[in-house]
Amino acid sequence: MSVETSDLRPGHRISRVIKGGWQLAGDHGPVDPAAAIRDMEAFVDAGITTFDCADIYVGVEEMIGTFIADLRQRRGTTVANRICVQTKLVPDLTRLSDLRAHEVEAIIDRSLRRLQVESLDLVQFFWWDLSLGNAVAGLDILKSLQAKGKIRTLGITNWDRQQIQPFLDAGYDIASAQVQYSVLDRRPENGMSEWSASHDIQLLCYGTLAGGFLTENWLGQPDPGFDFENRSLIKYRLIIDEFGPWDRFQTLLRALKFVGDRHNVSLSAVATRWVLDQNQVAACIVGARYARHLPQTLQVFDLALDDADHATLSAVLSQAEGPNGDVYGLERDRTSRHGRIMKYNLNTKPDDKVLGTDG
Predict the structure, then answer these.
(1) Are strands 50-52 and 84-89 parallel, antiparallel or unpaired?
(2) pLDDT by residue (tens digit) across 22-37?
(3) Who is most buried in 104, 185, 309, 326, counting CB within 10 A?
(4) Which parts of the chain are beta strand (E)?
C-alpha cells in the first residue's frame, strides 16, 4: 500500500487523504492535546503528510506547530519538511467592511508563529459576505504576501464558481477550492467540478465522512435528532435531513457496507474512495483527533471500486432529495438552519456564540 498524492501546482505535492483539524478545535468534544500532538507522527510516517487547519480553528495551528517543532528537533529538518500544512484566512464578519492590509498581514504572521514555519504552504481565503468590504483587495494582500515568501500557494474555501470568477478575472492564480463533498452531499456536481477543471482549480473535499456519520458506528442506529453538543455532528445531521429521511440514510450505509464487505474494507473507506474518484478531486480531508482509526483510513489506498460497486451506490444516490443548489449555498444564508450553527467572529472572539439550529 502506498499513499496517493496530487500536485496542486508544480512542486506543491499533497497526500490525497489530508488529516483534518476542525475536530481538534473547540465545540467538538473533549480533546487531549498531548495525545493529539503525539499521534500526528503516526500519520506522517504512514504517508499522510498533509494537515488541514485554519486561523479560526481555536488552538489547532498551535498544536500542529508544536508537533512540527518537536519533529524537527527529534528527527531533523528533512523529516519535518515532509509535512504540508494548509490553513485558512477567515476575517471576522464584523470586520469585513473596514479590514486593513496590515491586519491581514498580522493574521498571516500569527499563523506563521503558531505553526512555527517560515512560509505557509497553502492559504485558503474566505470572506463571509462578498457584499461587504472589498474581498478582491483582501486577496490582493495575500498575493503580496506570496511575493514576500510568506505564502506558497493560494486557494479559496466554501465558494462556488460564481464567487470565484471575479478573482480569476482580476488575475489571481487560485490553485484549489475547499468544498463539502461526500456521498451525502454532491453539490460540487452542480457545475462546480466541471468549471474547476476548465480553470485548473483542484477540489479539496471536507465532510467526506460527514463528521463520522458515514461509519459503521451509525449503521442500524435510530434517528438521534439534534441532541448533540458537537457542532460537527449538528452540521452533518442537517445534511442528512437534506439527503432524505433517516431511513434513506440507513439504506445508504447498508449499501456502503455491502460494497465494503465485497472488498474487505470499512464502509468509511468506500465513502472516501467514492469521493476521491470524482472529477477534479485532488484530496479528501478526513477529520481525526487521534490515530486509532488510521488503519481504516489507509484502506482507501488498497480499494478500487468497480462497475458493480458504483451501480450499488448509484441505486441509492438516485433517490436522494438533496442537498440541492450550489456549493455552500445552504450555509451562506445566515438565517437558515445551516447558517445559524456557524461562528462568524472567531479571529477576535474565540468564544463567539452560535445562533441555534431550531426553525
Answers:
(1) parallel
(2) 777 766 567 788 888 8
(3) 185
(4) 5-9, 12-15, 17-20, 50-52, 84-89, 120-125, 151-157, 176-180, 202-206, 281-287
| Residue pLDDT, tens place only, 149-205 | 999 999 999 999 999 999 999 999 999 999 999 999 999 999 999 999 999 999 999
What CA–CA distances, in Å, run from 65 to 78, 81, 111, 313, 344? Answer: 16, 12, 9, 40, 24
Does the pTM surpass 0.70? The reply is yes
State the helix-helix crossing angle for 307-317 and 246-263, rounded to 10 degrees.
170
Residue type, 41: E
3 state DSSP class of 229: coil
SS3 324: coil
pLDDT digits 0-9 by tens, 203-236: 999 999 999 999 999 999 999 998 887 778 899 9
The alpha-carbon radius of gyration of the chain (Å, integer) is 19
Tell me, which fold does domain 10-341 have in CATH?
TIM Barrel (3.20.20)
> Measured between alpha carbons, how far is 298 from 34 in angstroms, rounded to an integer?
23
